[in-house]
Amino acid sequence: MVGGVAGGMSAATRLRRLDESAEIVVVERSGHVSFANCGLPYHVGGVIPRRKDLLLQTPRSLGRRFGLDVRIHTEAVDIDRDRRVVVVHDLDTGERSEIEYDAMVLSPGARPVRPPIPGIERALSLRDIEDTDAMVAGVADAASVAIIGGGFIGVELAENMRARGLAVTLIEATDQVMAPIDPELAAVVHERIQEHDVDLRLGVSAQRIGESTVTLSDGSVIAADLVVAAIGVRPDTELAARVGLRIGVRGGIEVNDRLQTSDPAIYAVGDAVEKRDSLDESAVLVPLANTANRQGRRVADAIMGRPVSDQPVLGTAIVGVFGLQVAATGWNEKRLRAARRAYQAIHIHAGSHAGYYPGADEMHLKLLTEPGTWQILGAQGVGESGIDKRIDVISTAIRGGLTAIDLAELELAYAPAFGSAKDPVNMLGWQADNIASGLVQTLQWHEVGAASAAGAVLLDVRTEKEYAEGAIPGAINVPLDHLRERMEEIPAGDVVAYCRVGVRGHTAARLLAQVGRRVRNLDGGYLTWSAGIGA
């Protein structure tokens, strides 16, 4: 095993359970072969105060329990594929030696992206325990930090650096954080980040890193005693490429369904390899620990001749951001548009559990489905609680081949403290069914401007108080409870009805349709429109 942690150690321990007689050697260039890498930001922030809690196993404990020969501070530097030997370099002694293999598993993981910015050598990254130690030491002497990159690690570190009392600037070159979610949901995350006194800089990049500052592309200069590069990761394919293994179109090691590389005696798993996308079978890079663990188990089975086939991935992921849960599975709207793939978006804003039970929070869910087949293409969610289980249910539905309409019939656990009799997942299914059956037509937040310009009447069916607090420009207000007796106030022509979240708008749309009006309901209501416009 070249590389430990999720993929390599899962493979090694599974192999031992399958074959007690096998000689299993694990080489790991860092000083720790089994640690909770997803917990590293939380140790930096003090949420996980004891460093030792991140260390799951040691070479000694793995030797005792599994009979593994684990060699830390040992780097694989070459592979003689004809002789089936790997050349390793002991980083402590400087000595080189050879290890024979019948089968090899490459699990080198991914390396942090470090662009050629002047001064980038001062920026810290977060990949392993050694990186974590350096960051903890840096935080102790810092008052301000600049985090370059608004992805998962970047936002987690922003939260944890604030917990340590640092002034935090989060720099993201695109117009939003958290690329897997779409802009109208990202707007909710931006608001939460700024509420916690993080200086969020979107649409700018770091141009120069000084001794205590970072200069941005818009010319501004920010204070930064500490700089963190959290721009993303790339598969670590250096060794694989050097020895002639095939590298795929996305830059990861290419493997087959049995996780074999272009050399049948060499396997590869984890962040270093390309995976297959669940929706279109294209090559994708998904650097997630659960994926690496599953591949580690599968590769051990493959080496032992057991039937195995590596499965395509959805990229299901979740992150905590100052009390928000932000999760996604499958494709987002941006990717569907880029692929010119037809889709139907459905937004709902619902309670995390029954509203009459204390502590219910509003969650924002988005479902993407294919018109006609109603295949689920993806989903996203943002909220303070309950997002994890809803995205997990939808991810499972995709894996099981359920359609968006099938979500309406799922039997989900309900009690007031845990959910609602009308669960948000069921509600997504009911909306899909309404659209599929032609009962209602919907309009997306980014289509309102074009509809209004084409002459559609914007009908706000919220209360007069809600309307006065903010409305879509040009909209007329006829509250739903007075709509029947005030229909004559609605000008002729197509109508776009909307309320706060879409429920009253749906009722209004059905009422108007039954008296002969052409009407569409604004999907997700004013709440989705205002978030999208402000994104």
State the total count of DSSP E strands. 30
Name the poorly predicted regions. Answer: none
Number of helices: 15
Structural class: alpha/beta
**N/C terminus separation:** 46 Å
Q: How large, in whole angstroms, is the Cα Rg?
A: 26 Å
Strands ordered across the widest β-sheet = 21-22-25-24-23
Give the DSSP E fraction (strand runs of 2 or more residues).
Answer: 15-25%
Helix content: 25-40%
**On the 0-100 scale, what is the average pLDDT?**
96
Descriptive account of the structure:
The protein has 535 residues and is α/β, with parallel strands linked by helices. Helices cover 28% and strands 24% of the residues. The chain has 15 helices and 30 strands. The strands form ten sheets. It has a five-stranded antiparallel β-sheet, sandwiched between helices. A five-stranded parallel β-sheet has the order 26-30-29-27-28. The protein is globular.
Chart the SSEs and their pairings.
Blueprint: H1 5-18, E1 25-28, E2 34-35, H2 40-44, E3 55-57, H3 59-66, E4 69-72, E5 74-80, E6 85-90, E7 96-100, E8 104-106, E9 110-112, H4 129-140, E10 144-148, H5 152-163, E11 167-172, H6 183-195, E12 198-202, E13 206-209, E14 213-216, E15 221-223, E16 226-229, E17 233-235, H7 238-242, E18 266-268, E19 275-276, E20 283-284, H8 289-303, E21 317-321, E22 324-330, H9 333-338, E23 344-351, E24 362-369, E25 376-383, H10 387-399, H11 424-436, E26 442-443, H12 448-453, E27 457-460, H13 464-469, E28 476-477, E29 495-498, H14 503-513, E30 519-522, H15 525-534
Parallel strand pairs: 1-4, 8-18, 10-11, 10-16, 11-12, 26-30, 27-28, 27-29, 29-30
Antiparallel strand pairs: 2-3, 5-6, 6-7, 9-17, 13-14, 14-15, 19-20, 21-22, 22-25, 23-24, 24-25
